[in-house]
Amino acid sequence: MTPSVLGRDFRLLWSAAVSSRFGDALRTPALALLAATVTRDPRVIAAVTVAGQVPPLLFGLLGGVYADRWDRRRTMALVDGVRAAVVAALAVVVALNQVSVLVLLVAAFVLAALGTLFDSASFALLPALVPPDALPRANGRLQAGSAVAGGFLGAPAAGVLFAVAPAVPFAVDAVTFAAAALLVLALSPPAAAGGPGTARPRGAVWSEIGAGLRWLRAHRTLWRVTLLAAASNLAISGIMAVLVLYALEVLRVPPAGYGLFAAAAILGGVAGALGAARLAVSLGTVAALRAVLAAQTVALTGFALARHPVPGGIALAVFAAGTVVWNSLSASYGQRHVPSELLGRVGAAQRMVGLLTAPLGAALAGLAAAAYGTVPVAGAAAGTFALVTLVAWRTLRPAAPAVLSRSGAA
To answer: Membrane spanning segments where (predicted)?
Structure first.
């Protein structure tokens, strides 16, 4: 079967996403570095990170409502335009040496809050831009491009640009947001693109949020996939919380080589993103999801048993590849099965469920590592994935009714 052409609109969306991700990868470490120049209090520095993590939990469902109410193309462009203005203002404040903890907290919070609306609109817009059978390939390319722009380009450049002048990474980030806004505006208008954000009857905000949640809960396969994603995120968040300590203390990765070790995960993610569509075609989406969980369980078990940087890095790369495959296929599956008028809300509901477990996983990992060391944390993460895999193989059936989250095409 000849694969569908992704087309001009997808190339524009891809360019906008990659541009924005590059800017994010500059801004995030630059904010941490900037916070460290303002204060050495670890509680305050951690608060800046938390300020960027709270908005998706507070406003994620609300963002889904407005992604379904408004024209998604214009919403994305407006959000990126506002984010460009916010980051540009922050760059000016930094250049004038007027930075305070309050400024950093507000900037991190506002940018993350705007990001919840952008993410919901972007997720809901993609099915209007590419054919249904091309969704796994489109999502894979989006994730691959974002991984390269963020992991290989943006993150290494952040420290260099900050060393040149603290305001520079924020100024560049503002430019990337502005470029992304212009690229999104160049997309075909809704009528030509398939009608994203078309007019529909509107109720109260909470009733619309409830409609998205009820739709998600009513579809057995989609709901099970969402719960499996939340359970696996508990383990992923835990292992990521102690990754640097595990690498340095258990795998004996030299401090100077940690960046190279971490790059293994990025390489694995890119490989997974590029191979997700083929896996879905070969196995079918539901079967591919079960296979991915099994492969991740094996990889994470190998990681927990490894005591050398090379096998540890290989296991981490395979695990990261599985995570990206799961995310690509799940997004495609939802985009293909959820009604267009509900895409923003259902996608936001899924992200919310997944996010709820991440702070718990990180907190439990930190407490366990402090009491028993990082090795038991890695073992517990592998055990969690094994349980998730067992549940998936018992409950996810290719013939079952299908609809959204960690999947791609039935």
So the answer is: 44-65, 77-96, 102-126, 147-168, 174-193, 222-248, 260-281, 288-306, 312-331, 352-372, 378-396
Distances from the Cα of 410 to the Cα of 23, 148, 192, 197, 215, angstroms: 35, 29, 27, 25, 18
Do 1-131+138-192 and 205-410 fold alike per CATH?
yes
Amino acid at 59: F
pTM of whole model > 0.90? no
- Cβ within 8 Å of residue 175, ≥6 positions away: 23, 84
Q: How many CA atoms lie within 13 A of 298 on its CB side?
A: 9
Per this entry, what is the length of the chain?
A: 410
Q: Domain extents for the chain?
A: 1-131+138-192, 205-410
From the list 151, 98, 404, 131, the residue with the least C-alpha distance to 270 is 151
**Which one, of 333, 332, 120, 345, lies nearest residue 214 by Cα?**
345
Judge contact between 31 and 107, C-beta under 8 A: yes
Name the phi and psi angles at 339, rounded to 5: -55, 145
- Report the candidate in 279, 44, 26 with the shortest Cα–Cα distance to residue 156: 26
Q: Is the pLDDT reported for residue 410 higher than 50?
A: no
Q: Angle, to 10 degrees, between the axis of helix 343-372 and the axis of helix 101-125?
A: 130
Kindly report the CATH class assigned to 205-410.
Answer: mainly alpha
Residue type, 162: F
pLDDT of residue 200 exceeding 90, the answer is no
Q: What would the pLDDT profile of 204-245 be if each residue is shown by its tens digit? A: 898 999 999 999 999 888 899 999 999 999 999 899 888 888
The CATH superfamily of 1-131+138-192 is MFS general substrate transporter like domains (1.20.1250.20)
What distance in Å separates the CA atoms of residue 192 and residue 185, rounded to the nearest whole number? 13
**324 or 262: which carries more pLDDT confidence?**
324
